Amino acid sequence: MEKEKKGKKIWKYLIIILLILLVISLIIGGYFLKLYLYPTVSFSLKGEEKYLLSYGDKYEEAGAEAKVNGKDYNNKIKIDDSKVKIDELGEYKINYSITLPNGKQENLERIIKVVDDIKPEIKLKGDNPIKISYGSTFTEPGYEVSDNYDESDTLKVEVTYDRTINTKESGTYQITYTVTDSNHNSNSIVREVIVSPRIVVINGITYVEGILIVNKKYSLPANYNPGENKEAANQLYLMRMEAAKYGYDLRYCSGFRSYNYQTNLYNNYVKKYGQAMTDTFSAKPGHSEHQTGLAFDIGAIDDNFGDTETGKWLAINAHKYGFIIRYPKGKQDVTGYKYEPWHVRYLGVELATKVYKSGLTLEEYLNI
Ligand SMILES: [Zn+2]
């Protein structure tokens, strides 16, 4: 009896253990079967899915990444880029594929679009800006064009003028050159044409756009002896009166100087300082603005005058009376003279105001 009971129990246990083993092996087997039949796949492109490639540029393959059931599969990726033509505009496909252990294939695609998105180049022949003299004939010097895709004969060039260039009308004209390639990329450049002012010399006296000009380049004849200009002297008086109201003393230092007077003055300076030095602050006979009767030295003939309250008042108010500070700071290369905060030139209120507001020297303003 006892033995029989024991035997039955052992069988029972054995069956239970076998059942447990069976279940475990089914679970494990099922798991591996699932991995095989339905693997977990991650497969993706590196870089852009749609890649714009500028014509003429190299395509650099960014590749793809693959993992199957968590394992690296990168070295099994096949890349087919045989249809890509980077030397022709258009859309091309690159195929990326992997073959899974169950024989199935996974595919990805990248589109390469070869485009011409580069602007053509345009270079101007000749100067920019071009300076031409008043009344001369203007000939457009032309341009050169090139492009990454188009040959130069398929490039379109449009040349437009802001207004017709009339060399008998001084000023700045603009020519715009626009080049467009066959893929509608375009590029523009502007050329300035500066027609120099009308310069008229009457009896040895130079007028630029009607304004009497004396500087290192343009002189007055020895016999030009107009004396002090009445209008200028009157305006100077009004300005000095106005300054005096604020307590500023625009003392009269010098006005009209004749050719002979300037000759003596210049020669004396040369004796004292030598010619090179003299030429930075004193005019050669015939080249002094004082000979016009339109120039005055006021306040104080002192390099620091411009920093005094009086000098500052003069600098910002002179134009209201028709004067400009003729030799501004830092413009020696243009005017020929170092800074002279005391030297004013009469131009009339309208022109003086324009020159003052332009911030330019008279030479720059007149383009001479
Ligand atoms: Zn002076």
**Counting H and I runs of at least 4 residues, what is the number of helices?**
8
Number of strands: 20
The CATH architecture of the largest domain can be named as 2-Layer Sandwich
- Tell me the radius of gyration: 45 Å
Structural class of the helices, strands and pairings? alpha+beta
Estimate percent helicity. Answer: 25-40%
Highest CATH level, the class of the largest domain:
Alpha Beta
pLDDT under 50 segments (min length 5)?
A: none
Distance between the termini: 137 Å
According to CATH, the fold-level topology of the largest domain is Muramoyl-pentapeptide Carboxypeptidase, domain 2
When the domains are counted, the total is 3
Main sheet characteristics:
4 strands, mixed
Strand residues, percent: 25-35%
Dominant shape: elongated
Calculate the mean pLDDT score and round it. 94
Q: How would you spell out the order of helices and strands?
A: HEEEEEEEEEEEEEEEEHEHHEHEHEHH
* Widest sheet: strand ordering: 2-7-6-5
Give the cofactors and ligands.
Answer: zinc ion
